[in-house]
Design a protein that fits this description.
It is a single chain. By secondary structure, the chain is α+β, with helices and mostly antiparallel strands. It is built from twelve helices and 18 strands. The radius of gyration is 23 Å and the shape is globular.
């Protein structure tokens, strides 16, 4: 198999006709606050059964047998159901040249695929945006939008996000941790159509994922409309729990392009409303590490202590609207603290400095105009993470309704910016197993710098992403791949390059555990990089390769990284860069962004007869709701 490697009722929505549900007009926040906290909605076990029964009814009508999974908003698996005759496994596509690297070509458990799709629908969505796995497919490929006729355009804005929420992540909770989230996904985020968010009264409460066609892939052409059986079955499961029309992905644009929510519309599915789980043919399926299979479960209400995400106390953050991660018993999982790297650098970040950096970044977010939220002129909502040079978390804060996926991704981004800016990057990559060491030589050759990745330059995630695309410059067909990417003939979303090579061993271990071929699960520590700080690597939840992070310096000495995720990539860039700048001004002590002379935008790469400069950050124009200021990052 691995050879290649509860409570609340449903929203009133008009059933299978695809009614709008509640109009998403934001409730005015309480006095003195900038954000509204999502209402305490959750799925009951009976409602989980309804979702499964409706999906199964549509599958029967189409003459196929499906595996169906339902999760709550923070990733707890509430039910996995296999219809009679449902295939136990599915296949991931090979590379364009027919070879298989990383996750390409794997045979995977269908239950794992269904869970990944359900988690993706839940994690990418919020009260201001509803994204499906088809939306994910739209935004992670080598061209945006992906289609044969769009060759030459840049890659998707969330290129690489599929390798987040990994089963080896040290941040993501596991079933053994109880009901707190956010939970991991067996396959990261899914780009295979057939996963949708579930809503109650305009509040996202979970996701449904389906696989019936035997292929766990992606859609390479958005210019046509697919008749996708997985998508139709999953859409049927959402009846009564539909995303409000006004916040679905096709009402949201990126770079002027409307995203895609579904190719199958509600009038194209049967009348499944009122289907009963009792009597539905099939069985609940236990999935090691995720679901016991003993019965349907009720979901946690997001924002409650039980969900693992709660409002912060005044002692934790001065920002009144701040949320933090909790252990389910009131204890902040990532409290503010000083750097753990006193043995490595002279003046590590202090807890007081961590506080002001995160608080100032939160303030920038609170003023920023959102890119991916409806209605227009909503405030941006993100998660912000800060790490020291060892990759240890010094604090994590988020807004009340930021998408869940951004929690893990913001930490990946912070760690990635820190890692590639440090003097340790090359040596630790060279000490890793598999093909990882090869990426060091490729980078040095590509940049014409034999000392690359030894701390001479500061790399943001935007810069690292430049080097991680299958064309350089990004999207330009006929140009070579970046040194951290696969060549285009070997590339698809299941094998991106260094990003996937770093964690393929962990993924293989985990899938062996899920399928019973291995007694122990993969460690809570991604990659085979050398351990620091208690044995974990500096990249203990993998790397990320789309924008939204910068390294943190004291003078010209690296002291950590800050990462932001949850809105548009330019907004994420601005919140990290400007938040650090403002926090450093408030903290003093020589803190700040990297000195301009060593930022990665000073690196120029020869491409044919051209000189192509790497990027550092890209802040949006007119980004704030409270001022008409334009170039807010210029000169900093």
């Amino acid at each position: 198999m691995l050879a290649s490697c509860g409570g609340g009722g449903p929203s009133s929505s008009g059933g299978a006709t695809g009614g709008t549900g509640p109009t998403p007009t934001p409730t005015p926040p309480p006095a003195g606050q900038l954000f509204s906290v999502p209402a305490a909605e959750s799925l009951s076990s009976a409602e989980v059964g309804t979702v499964i029964a409706q999906a199964a009814a549509e599958a029967r009508a189409r003459g196929v047998a499906a595996t169906i999974a339902v999760t709550d908003r923070v990733g707890n698996v509430l039910g996995v159901f296999a219809m009679p005759g449902a295939a136990p496994t599915a296949r991931i596509p090979a590379a364009p040249d027919g070879t298989s690297r990383d996750a390409q070509g794997l045979t995977i458990p269908s239950a794992g695929a269904a869970i990944a799709k359900a988690i993706t629908g839940a994690y990418l969505s919020s009260g201001g945006n509803a994204f499906s796995t088809r939306t994910a497919s739209f935004i992670v490929q080598e061209h945006f939008p992906p289609a044969p006729t769009t060759a030459g355009l840049e890659s998707g804005p969330l290129f690489g996000v599929q390798f987040s929420q990994l089963p080896c992540s040290d941040l993501a909770a596991r079933a053994s941790d109880g009901f707190i989230g956010p939970k991991r996904s067996p396959l990261g985020l899914a780009a295979d159509p057939g996963g949708f968010p579930l809503y109650q009264n305009g509040v996202v409460v979970g996701g449904v994922g389906v696989i019936a066609d035997g292929t766990y892939g992606f859609d390479p052409n958005v210019l046509d409309r697919d008749v996708d059986v997985d998508e139709a079955i999953a859409l049927a499961g959402t009846v009564g729990f539909e995303a409000p029309v006004a916040i679905r992905a096709d009402r949201i644009t990126a770079d002027g392009t409307s995203l895609r929510y579904t190719d199958v519309e509600y009038p194209q599915i049967g009348n499944v409303a009122g289907s009963s789980f009792t009597g539905t043919a099939g069985t609940l399926v236990p999935v090691a590490g995720y679901y016991m299979g003993a019965g349907l479960l009720a979901g946690a209400a997001y924002g409650s202590e039980a969900s693992g995400v709660r409002a912060s106390t005044a002692a934790e953050f001065a920002n009144r609207d701040a949320f933090v991660l909790t252990n389910g018993a009131g204890v902040n999982r990532f409290p503010l603290r000083s750097g753990t790297d006193a043995g490595d650098i002279t003046a590590p970040l202090t807890a007081a400095e961590a506080r002001v950096i995160l608080e100032e970044a939160f303030t920038v977010m609170s003023r920023a105009r959102a890119q991916i939220r409806q209605p227009l002129d909503s405030r941006a909502q993100v998660t912000i993470s800060l790490v020291d040079t060892r990759g240890q978390v010094l604090g994590l804060v988020r807004s009340p309704d930021a998408p869940i996926f951004g929690i893990d991704v913001s930490l990946q981004k912070a760690r990635t910016a820190n890692f590639f800016s440090g003097g340790f990057a090359a040596s630790e990559l060279l000490a890793a197993g598999g093909e990882v060491p090869q990426f060091v030589a490729r980078t040095r050759t590509f940049l014409g710098d034999p000392a690359a990745l030894t701390g001479g330059f500061a790399f943001s995630d935007r810069a690292g992403g430049n080097l991680s695309r299958p064309y350089f410059p990004d999207g330009e067909v006929g140009q070579p791949n970046g040194p951290l990417s696969r060549p285009i003939t070997q590339f698809n979303p299941f094998s991106t390059g260094l990003q996937s090579a770093l964690i393929v061993g962990n993924l293989g271990q985990h899938l062996e555990f899920v399928t019973g071929q291995r007694p122990d699960d993969t460690p809570r520590n991604c990659t085979t990089l050398p351990g620091v700080a208690g044995g974990n690597s500096r990249l203990a939840n993998g790397i990320q390769i789309f924008p939204g992070s910068v390294p943190v310096y004291r003078g010209n000495v690296l002291v950590g990284g800050i990462g932001v995720s949850g809105d548009g990539i330019d907004q994420d860039d601005m919140i990290s860069f400007l938040g650090l700048h403002n926090g450093a001004n408030r903290a003093g002590g020589g803190l700040g962004n990297a000195p301009a002379a060593i930022r990665s935008d000073r690196i120029v790469v020869a491409v044919g007869n051209r000189q192509v400069r790497l990027r550092y950050v890209n802040c949006p124009f007119a980004p704030f709701l409270d001022t008409s200021a334009q170039n807010v990052c210029e000169g900093l």
